[in-house]
Amino acid sequence: MDKITFLNYLEGELSRLPKVERDKIMYEYETKFFEAQNENKDDTELIHELGEPRSIAKKVYADLAIQDAESAPNFKNVLHAIMATLGLSFFNIFFIIIPFLIVALILLIVIVVGALMMLGPILSIVNIFIYGFHWVDLTNIIFSISFLGFGLMLLIAGLKLIEVSYKWVLKYLRWCIRLIRRSAE
Fold first, then answer.
1. For residue 91, what pLDDT is reported?
2. Is the CB of residue 176 less than 8 Å from the CB of residue 92?
3. pLDDT tens digit string along 148-182?
4. DSSP string covering 79-122, please?
5. Numbers of helices and strands, H then E, in the chain
6. Which residues are listed as membrane-spanning (predicted)?
7. How many other CB atoms are there within 10 angstroms of residue 34's CB atom?
8. Model-level pTM greater than 0.90?
């Protein structure tokens, strides 16, 4: 593969990017070829060092997806960043999916338990209607209120953990991308 073929193939792989971004990246790679030519380096040697245009494009898309998730941290953007990073290598399936599923499971458990604990007062009210007022005593009321309070605390803690986990997941994805780049060099 020669320089022109490489650059054309890279531009084709980057076709989903906005023109301004694509032009910026293409200029960066054209500059690398120009600098290599000034150092009397062969184009094929530089192409071998740079890697396949498809893998370069995947790294660019993963970086942009992570940047989008950092600027607007919501579930859709974080999931898109995870999926873009997964495409970089087989290694990522184990080092991204498994930790993500563990974190998601823990957060789901905290939120579900918090929501279920908040049902205590509702169950008390239902029991009053089913069994009558003779069922009501002070301990049941205290337990219902404490379950409501503890459930609210768990629910709020779960929502705060989701917010914090977005940042942790994005930092972890950045670390994975750096690790892949180091291993490729």
1. 65
2. yes
3. 899 999 999 998 988 888 888 888 888 877 776 66
4. HHHHHHHHTT-THHIIIIIHHHHHHHHHHHHHHHHHHHHTTHHH
5. 9, 0
6. 78-98, 105-129, 141-162
7. 11
8. no
